Amino acid sequence: MIKVKKRKFLLLPGDGIGPEVINEVKKIINWFNNKKSLDFEMEEDLAGGISYDKHGTPITDEVFYKALECEAVILGAVGGPKWDNVEFSKKPERALLKLRKELKLFANLRPAICFKQLVDASTLKPEVVSGLDIMIVRELTGGIYFGEPRGIKPIDNGERKGINTHTYTSSEIRRVAKVAFDLAKKRQNKVTSCEKSNVMEAGLLWREEVQELHDKEYKDVNLNHMLADNCSMQLLRNPKQFDVIVTDNLFGDMLSDQASMLTGSLGLLPSASLGAKNKDGKLRAMYEPIHGSAPDIAGKGIANPIASILSFAMALKYSLNLDNEANALEKAVQDVLDDGLRTKDIISKGTKEVSTSQMGDAIISKLQ
Ligand code: NAD
Questions:
Q1: Which of 181, 193, 282, 286 is within CB 3.0–4.6 Å of 73 for a Cys-Cys bond?
Q2: Minimal-distance CA residue to ligand 1 atom 42
Q3: Which residues contact residue 195 at a Cβ distance below 8 angstroms, ignoring those fewer than 6 apart?
Q4: Which residues contact 81 (CB under 8 A, 6 or more apart)?
Q5: What angle separates helix 356-367 from helix 306-318, to the nearest 10 degrees?
Q6: Is residue 125 part of a domain?
């Protein structure tokens, strides 16, 4: 069999359950290397609280440069109560923000898929969520989380004023909309763009730019615009009307969390953050489960590794164009769920509880 070029993943397991779930991803990477002769290289390093404890910073320059050089970063989760009192700029979560900003990861892809085997785990009626498959594309490096001026300053009469600024340029809007249109073409060919153009100028610009890009380059994709508050309501009323939703950083933060809960479990959902291509045509990217470090269950061997494993499937698809391998991995996850194996977070009557590592092993055995 012909060996493909070595491709390097930087694994940053992080804190809490991060190392436990990333350990299962490592097993899967090893399986692909051994059984499919895919010469993936893995390098592991510290990010988050564990890096702060060792180096006094949530991410060292050395690790950051490794992230710039690798094919893709695979992150577990960062943070936890241990670091609650650490100064703001040194908090574990700053590692994530630095990676997102410096790697220019402007498009955050969050699928919300309701696995048919877990339809009862959703708080919504089965007929509303069964078969749900939405992709939310959230702008990740602009908008109110990064806009200047920002801060808290004293004003007259002894009061203080908190300031954040919501800004977007045409190019920031267009590049993320382009990602959404391209994705839609591989899915149901439908994009819903969300903003608040009724009350925000930046929202109006968002709507105009998305429409213009559509009319020039993506006429064949169905586009509709929706106010973000209406989208929030529609996600609960009739979520299956959506295919790809594209929206800004703030609304995306909320809508994607809301959409993820339609599916019932945090432990199942992956995410990808994509950046611009570098001069070698390489797409900068980071893949991570949407859940956090789950300090309440860390070290118990019960965390669900599926979100991390599906994040790796996204890496195969979006960073390496290995669609067949990604599909095989996704199917292996479905097969294991079909067999009734469940980690504690998704256990239900008539299913069998397995540990984190047993779940990883079962997925690998389905890949065989
Ligand atoms: P969380 O996602 O860590 O946990 C929420 C609940 O879901 C907990 O009950 C947890 O046990 C459960 N859960 C989460 N992932 C699970 C999994 N894979 N398997 C089984 N159960 C799972 O959110 P939180 O409790 O709000 O945050 C804990 C810490 O994680 C905080 O320090 C927070 O800042 C951090 N955090 C990090 C990220 C990240 O690294 N991307 C994201 C969110 C939160």
A1: 286
A2: 292
A3: 202, 203, 204, 206, 207, 225, 227, 228, 247, 248, 251
A4: 295
A5: 40
A6: no
Both 223 and 322 in one domain: the answer is no
DSSP 195: E
CA angle 318, 321, 323 (to 5 degrees): 95
Q: Which residue has the least CA distance to atom 27 on ligand 1? A: 292
Residues serving a catalytic function are 145, 196, 229, 253, 257
Would 127 be classed as within a structural domain? no
- Indicate if 291 and 177 belong to the same structural domain: no
Domain count, the chain: 2
**Which stretch of 58-62, 81-85, 223-227, 320-324 has the lowest confidence by average pLDDT?**
320-324
Name the residue of 51, 90, 286, 293 to mutate for ligand 1: max ligand atoms within 8 A of Cβ: 293
CATH number at residue 150: 3.40.718.10
Which among 225, 243, 262 is the end of a domain? 262
Specify the pLDDT at position 307.
96
Model confidence at 31, pLDDT cuts 50, 70, 90, reads: very high
d(CA 131, CA 150): 42
- Note down the domain range covering 60: 1-113+263-368
Over 60: is that where the pLDDT of 3 sits?
Answer: no
Tell me which of 209, 238, 262 is where a domain ends: 262
Tell me the CA–centroid distance for residue 318 and ligand 1, in Å: 25
The per-residue pLDDT for range 292-325, each reduced to its tens digit, is 999 999 999 999 999 999 999 999 999 988 999 9
Q: How far is the CA of 293 from the centre of ligand 1 (A)?
A: 5
Examine residue 291 and state whether it is found in any structural domain, yes or no. yes
Do 51 and 75 belong to one domain? yes
Residue 118 lies in a domain: no
- The binding-site residues of ligand 1, defined as CB within 6 angstroms of any ligand atom, are 17, 21, 77-80, 93, 96, 266-267, 288, 291-297, 303-304, 307, 345
pLDDT at position 2 is: 46
Q: What is the mean pLDDT of residues 137-152?
A: 94
Q: Amino acid letter at 50? A: I
Query: Which ligand 1 atom sits closest to the C-alpha of 345?
Result: 20
8 Å CB contact between 348 and 342: yes
* Averaged pLDDT for residues 22-33: 96
- Residue that wins the pLDDT comparison between 368 and 311: 311
